[in-house]
Amino acid sequence: MILSNFIVPFILNNNYSEHNVLKQQDNSSKTIYTFKKINEHKQSMLLALSTKKTNESVKLLEKHIPFKKFVYPNIWQKLSTTYLQETVFLSPVNKLNTSYINLLRKKGLSVYDSSQNRIFLNKFIKDLDNGTINVQYNDKFAKTFNYIDFTYIKYSWPKIVNVQRLKLHNLKNNISSFFVNGKITPPNNSIPLFVLTNDSNEIIMSESVNQFSKLGHLSTFYGSLIPKLFSNPRNSKFYTCLIFVNPNDAVEYKDFLRHKNSLSTNSLNIKVVPSNLSIYFKLKSFFANSVDFRLIPDLKEVSDLLFEYSKYSNLHFDKSQKHGRKFFQGQPLYSINNLNFKNTTKHSTYNNIYFFPNSRQYNNSNTFFLNYSTAQSAWNKFKEENKGICLPRNPSISVSNVELFMKRSEEEKEFDKIVFLPSLQTYKFLKEYLIINFKGQSSFYGWLSDKGLAMKTLCYRVFWSLVSRQPNTL
Questions:
Q1: In terms of domain of life, where is this protein from (predicted)?
Q2: How far apart are CA 106 and CA 95, in angstroms?
């Protein structure tokens, strides 16, 4: 492709007809250029299509194009194209385009010389790579014209502020897709998840490495303004939020942050707070353009599955599950398969397994386990309560992952009736957390502790503003 930002002839404006058709005379035949405005995604673009291949010679260009009427940009136009917005033309490589560009350079009408053109191309490639130039490919639109007859694309390249990437625009698209498509997974609160919070009960996130390196040379004000104004395309988020399935992994990450920031004067009262899947999906939908939410699976469970459970003959992997000898994608999710068994007392055959003898609401078809030991314990309890039934020692268990199950269950109407059972360690952690927090909130000491923590943080900021050269904003 030829990428140029040369000056468009002044004569084009005069020959541009009311019907958006520009006729150009040839020695042999006529070539008609049809100009179409492209308003898809509200992006400023002009597409030129030709009905025939252009084989005009250099002499024809010199004869029919009045180079004397070309307007060379002044200093203000140069500043505008350098720092605000620039119009570029993208076209296929052919003899006419190459001759036209060489003629402009020969007559000194090129906006950039050879060295400046290399800088221009480098900037354009970088903006394509980091997503500043948002490329949208539409299959239906691509089939409407022939590539052979394609002449050029006119594109307005914003340098500082790209209005099309404002969060307001993306928020409108997200809201419309939320109501129109209706494909967001229904909430389910039975999966316990864990996040890290600070003194102000705010979720702790890490800054993206790519964005930190891009904004490192900018001022503090401008660097903080960019995430608030823009959305970041191509899955390159500004922040990363880790959400854990196993509370022990969250505690280990908390200890790591404390050790890493042990020399900091700021208060590091990091807490592991339980959450659920409903909050996870709400956060992921509202902050999809700025925060990369990553669900960290139970690392110990994944390790046990790969090196121990995978060798069991009663364990079967789902066909869509990506796994290998040393890797497993996602959080493991276990389910006990149906089997035909006979009750010697009642002389009947069953294929559903009910884990609660007094309730038929939850069976093996809507009960899933996040831990293999929990599934095995549920089976052992079922065997003990049904001693009159001839049951195998180990059940037939299928394993997939939580993310894969959510994708399959997007259109399920009775999604809330499904229950996920965590490990025994997770249950004990939740029980201790609830006892400690409810007890602390109901006591005067707990209220005083929370207020004292906020006062302690304020004192730290005041002290730091006194000893530093530039006081911080309180």
A1: Eukaryota
A2: 16
What letter would DSSP give residue 337? P
Among 24, 108, 113, 126, which Cα is nearest to 67's?
108
**Residue written as token pair 């046990």:** 304
Quote the pTM value.
Answer: 0.53
How does pLDDT run across 433-470, given as a tens digit for each residue?
Answer: 888 876 655 555 555 555 555 555 555 555 555 555 45
Q: Which domains does the chain have, with CATH numbers?
A: 2-161 (no CATH), 166-295 (3.40.1350.100), 299-428 (no CATH)
Cα 146 off chain centre by: 34
Give residue-wise pLDDT tens across range 392-428.
888 899 999 988 888 777 655 556 678 888 888 898 8
**Which residues lie below 8 Å from residue 251, measured CB to CB, with a gap of 6+?**
272
Question: Residue for token digits 């005067």?
Answer: 444
What's the token pair of residue 326? Answer: 């040393």
Tokens matching residue 268: 């590091």
d(CA 187, CA 281): 7
Dihedral sign computed on CA atoms, order 222, 228, 229, 232: positive
